[in-house]
Amino acid sequence: MAKLAINGGNKVIDKRIGIHLPVVDEDDVQAVADVVRSGVWGRGGIRLAADAAKEELAGRPLAAFEQAFAAFQGGKHVIGVSSGTAALYIGLKASGIGCGDEVIVPVSGFIGTATVCFNVNAIPILVDLDPETFNISPEAIEAAITDRTRAIIPVHLGGYPADMDRIMEIARRHNLIVIEDCAHAHGSQWRGQGMGTVGSMGEFSFQMSKTITSGDGGAIITNDTEFAELCLWNAGYSRPRDNVYHNPIMIFRMTQMQGALLGSQFGKFQAQREKKEANARILADGLREIGGITPIFGDPRVTRHGIWFLNFRYDKAHFGDVPLRRFLRAVQAEGAPISSFFVAPITRDVAFRELQFTHGCPVDCPKYGKTVDYTKGSFPVADRASDEEGMSIAQRSLLGSEDDMRLIVEAVRKVHDNISELRAAA
Ligand SMILES: Cc1ncc(COP(=O)(O)O)c(C=O)c1O
Fold first, then answer.
1. Span 126-143, pLDDT tens digits
2. Residue-range definition of the domain harbouring residue 104
3. Which of 81, 83, 85 to mutate to test the pocket of ligand 1 (most atoms within 8 A of CB)?
């Protein structure tokens, strides 16, 4: 008789593990209602939250969140803006990156991390992933550096920090700017430093699915006050002075309603983060014991975990050559919320390959003087991560109980122990 659920056996888990996100309560409703009643709906002011004690931002929820989040991440300034992509754009712009400059980004992830470079007329240079962490590979960064390279954008994929020791060492040696893409990494720390404060600056997203959300939104974090002021200005937080309108061309402002929601969500986030880290540890320990699955978790340099997705590497050889997709179907049939790797190489996106959004510029720009062909290039680690090795568990599932985590381990163990049944069915 078949034991595995995929072959008709009983399931290990017969409930949906995890919670619905975002968690909404009366605090959220009250926070937004208070702003609406106050009649002050915009952030206003050209001041940084840190300078706002007695100024026009005092007591306003957005400045309060900016200060609280800066303190939590261990950075000096946080500036709320309209999205994470806008924060990346502002960071590039304020860093003076522009025409003919190359910016190194990981090949797998959110397409906007690369395409935002086109918006400042810079060229994103895609590089492969590290085979252990599936974050950007320091070796690949080093190999991609040319006399045009100005910046690196490491993405802390799923919230797990990229190797910032090696990235910062490379950046220092080549005099490069490091813009940390922390869209997944609220709360994560590298050697006690909050993500976004290790490089030159960091960017966060508060889009609906992220670990702190206001529906949409983003933020810049930096320790450099002069740079923060430049970002504030580039975000459009400006006003006429001396009859001259001191605004850049684009506006990326955040509202007080978003600031209020972020403030009320931030309290819940901190408890959720602790729970996810504790549950990730139970899962990681349990899966390591089974063998054949390596959790991307546990580097002692990662001193605090802010998890959006927890990722794993699948070793097909350990599972009798059963392909990843088939293994995943079997654990899903047991009720375990494990899915295939949550990102893929962006070169597979036809819009990116064909550069449907650039209208020729900046890739054809004579000032750049080189040719870019995103249909070429070999990214074996990113391909393997996407097709053969990478598995992910979403944050909502990590907010289940400790016993739920043990059930997930049990489901994987069952498939592991009955792998011959899967092989025979294939
Ligand atoms: C790695 C990464 N960077 C940047 C962003 C941009 O965030 P937003 O959607 O707030 O623009 C995202 C969004 O998913 C992301 O995953």
1. 999 999 999 999 999 999
2. 26-266
3. 85
Just list the catalytic residues: 210
The two tokens of residue 303 are 């001193």
Statement: residue 38 has pLDDT above 80: yes
What is the Å distance from ligand 1's center to 83 Cα?
A: 8
Alpha-carbon torsion, ordered 153, 155, 156, 159, to 10 deg = 130
Tell me if 272 is assigned to some domain. no
Work out the pLDDT band at 358, boundaries 50, 70, 90.
Answer: confident
pLDDT tier at 355, thresholds 50, 70, 90: confident
User: Which residues lie closer than 8 Å to 189 by C-beta, 6 or more apart?
Assistant: 74, 161, 195, 302, 303, 304
**Any ligand 1 atom below 6 A from CB of 155:** yes
Does residue 161 sit within a domain?
yes
Domains of the chain: total: 1
Assess whether pLDDT exceeds 60 at residue 337: yes
Q: Which ligand 1 atom is at minimum distance from the Cα of 343?
A: 16
335, HSE (Cβ side, Cα atoms, 13 Å): 17
